Amino acid sequence: MPASVDPSLLQRFGRLEFLARQAVEGFITGLHRSPFHGFSVEFAEHRLYNPGESTRHIDWKLYGRTDKLFVKRYEEETNLRCQLVVDCSGSMWYPGEVEPDGPGMNKLKYAVHSSAALMELFRRQRDAVGLSLFSESLETHIPAKASNAHLRAIYQELESLLDESNNRRQGTSAVNALHQIAEASPRRSLVVVFSDLLDRGGDVDEMMAALQHLRHNKHEVVVFHVLDKATEVDFEFEDRPTIFQDLESGEELRLHPSEVRETYIDRMASLRKELELRCAQYRVDWVDVDIAVGVYPVLSAYLAKRAKLRSSRF
Strand 128-134 to strand 81-87: parallel, antiparallel, or no bridges (unpaired)? Predict the structure, then answer.
């Protein structure tokens, strides 16, 4: 345990929760407010201006076009509801087992630590947070709430994911899980997905239909596409006979990386490009993630970008 860590703090908080609190102090503090705050305040409709009332919400652009005074009406302001969605299938354990508190990083640990950091941001805003876990199906769905006891339970759920004994080498079916989450989340929310999207079916149209289902239900969707860039994108394996094992099925394939590298890179690039373009089409935020970069640089860059986009709209 690092000397700077007070053991009494770890008794009050779980290790993951404590790390999230430390991190938020560093990489979120200083942003111009939160890029998520006020998420559910949305324009609803226009109505005619009544003489004597405040001119604060008059739509002056509309006045310039129509020469009539209209007031913007907004949906009722509520706190943010966020549903964190974490892929815990076998492929997320790539590129290997790591210590929960160690420096190594696999895709699942990356997703867990990113989720914990976002949870701490939402906690400070007194927002409601929920958690959904999926592999071959939706395994856990905890609706969003804002109580400390509820958030502590989610931290414990996330910490349990890092226990290798919980790795059942399940397959991936993000499509089915996202449809189930859309049906189980009747209230408009921010849905943040952490997954490699290496879905068993591999059908991009079906994946987009699932994301569109969330958008159709008025959810805002952010997809963090979590990969190990060096090997899963650039296929940087030594040029020698190598045995590749499917982390979900256990099947093994012996081949020479140089024989398939070009084809693999082309297909992976094509898949990632199509997913990104289709997400843009459906107004789904797409974030390319290389786990080697680290949790906080990626989140900081995304939150800063989001804050800048929000400020440019008002």
Answer: parallel
Tell me, what amino acid is at 165? S
Phi/psi at 242 (nearest 5 deg)? -135, 145
For residue 21, CA distances in Å to 9, 67, 147, 149 come to: 11, 52, 17, 16
- Residues 152/17, Cβ–Cβ less than 8 Å: yes
User: Could you tell me the pLDDT band of residue 100, with boundaries at 50, 70 and 90?
Assistant: low
Residue 17 CA to residue 119 CA, distance in Å, equals 9
- CATH of span 81-313: 3.40.50.410
Task: Give the Cα-Cα-Cα angle 11, 16, 22 (nearest 5 degrees).
Answer: 90
Helices assigned H by DSSP within the chain = 7-12, 15-27, 60-66, 107-124, 148-161, 174-184, 204-216, 257-281, 295-313
286 beta partners: 223
- 239 DSSP β-pair partners: none
Q: Find how far residue 236's CA is from the centre of its chain.
A: 26
Q: Are 98 and 106 in contact (CB under 8 A)?
A: yes
State pTM to two decimals.
0.80
Q: Give the domain ranges of the chain.
A: 43-74, 81-313
Cα(310)–Cα(314) distance, integer angstroms:
7
185: nearest Cα among 310, 35, 82: 82
Structure tokens given for 163: 């226990």
Are 214 and 82 contacting, i.e. CB atoms less than 8 angstroms apart? no
The per-residue b/e assignment along 259-278, b for 16 or more CB within 10 angstroms, e otherwise, is eeeeebeeeeeeebeebbeb
* Phi-psi region at 253: left, alpha or beta (left = phi > 0; alpha = psi -120 to 50): beta
CB 111 within 8 A of CB 145: no
pLDDT at 1: 37
pLDDT of residue 38: 47
Q: In this structure, how many other beta carbons lie within 10 angstroms of the beta carbon of residue 110?
A: 25
Quick one: DSSP state of residue 225? E
